[in-house]
Specification:
The structure is a single chain. With 236 residues, the protein is of the alpha/beta class. It contains six helices and seven strands; from the N terminus they run αββαβαβαβαββα. It has a seven-stranded mixed β-sheet, with helices on both faces. α3 links the parallel β3 and β4. The N and C termini lie far apart (44 Å).
């Protein structure tokens, strides 16, 4: 009996060979510049669909999580990032373009395609970079979990932005950066139609778990989050 709510045949997912080819090189570059620590990887299923739900404090969060992960991650990335010099690398790694501030049907379909093909999806439930404590979240992670029955693994990222620095800054060379994975949440696949109340409840559950995990990680590692950025990340 499958746990994936799939109305038709499972389609192929997004390309992953660039991850296998480029990650060793990119990991070395990361390690030369920053003191990288990754813990809790055993909480991430080695195969099958999974949603990684992370806090979001700085520019480095996505690259750090994607490069250090044992699995190829396909992240929902704001469309503006594809317009810069690094856009070619995002496209090569099959990251997902997201137009924020509205329902992006194409991004939703691609994210579901990733999960239904047994791949890994990285999401930031708050939809923007902030102080890292996880405040208001959107319903995307909850919807994806209910639509596919995928487990959700909370991820705490620490050290990728220094106190007082803006959202586009990078931490100082040699600074410690952490990616900490928590215990997965399980969800039963819910066939369409999925009502707004169910999606909201699933999203609240994910937010609570992520918030608790971030607090646990900072206390365990005895590290502080950077606080709110002077330049707010908005949908405008």
């Amino acid at each position: 009996m499958t746990t994936i709510a799939q109305p038709g045949p499972v389609r192929s997912g997004l390309t992953e060979w660039p991850h296998r080819v480029l990650k060793p090189l990119l990991r070395r570059r990361l390690s030369r510049r920053w003191d990288v620590h990754v813990s809790g990887l055993d909480h991430v299923p080695t195969a099958g669909p999974v949603i990684l739900a992370s806090n979001h404090i700085g520019w480095l969060d996505g690259p750090l999580t994607v490069i250090t992960s044992d699995r190829a991650l396909h992240a929902l990335v704001k469309h503006e990032s594809f317009e810069g010099g690094g856009g070619w690398l995002l496209r090569l790694g099959a990251q997902i373009t997201l137009h924020r501030g509205r329902t992006d049907a194409a991004a939703v379909r691609t994210a579901l395609r990733v999960l239904r093909a047994g791949q890994a999806l990285l999401v930031y439930p708050e939809g923007k970079r902030g102080d890292g404590l996880v405040h208001e979240v959107f319903g995307g992670a909850g919807y994806f979990a209910l639509a596919t029955g995928s487990p959700v693994v909370p991820v705490a990222v620490i050290g990728t932005r220094e106190p007082g620095a803006d959202i586009e800054s990078k931490p100082s060379s040699g600074q410690r950066v952490d990616v900490v994975y928590g215990r997965p949440l399980t969800f039963a696949a819910t066939p369409w139609p999925r009502d707004a109340g169910s999606v909201s409840a699933a999203s609240d559950r994910i937010a609570d778990a992520l918030r608790t995990h971030v607090e646990w990680a900072t206390e365990t590692l005895q590290r502080d989050l950077p606080g709110p950025p002077p330049q707010q990340d908005t949908f405008e």
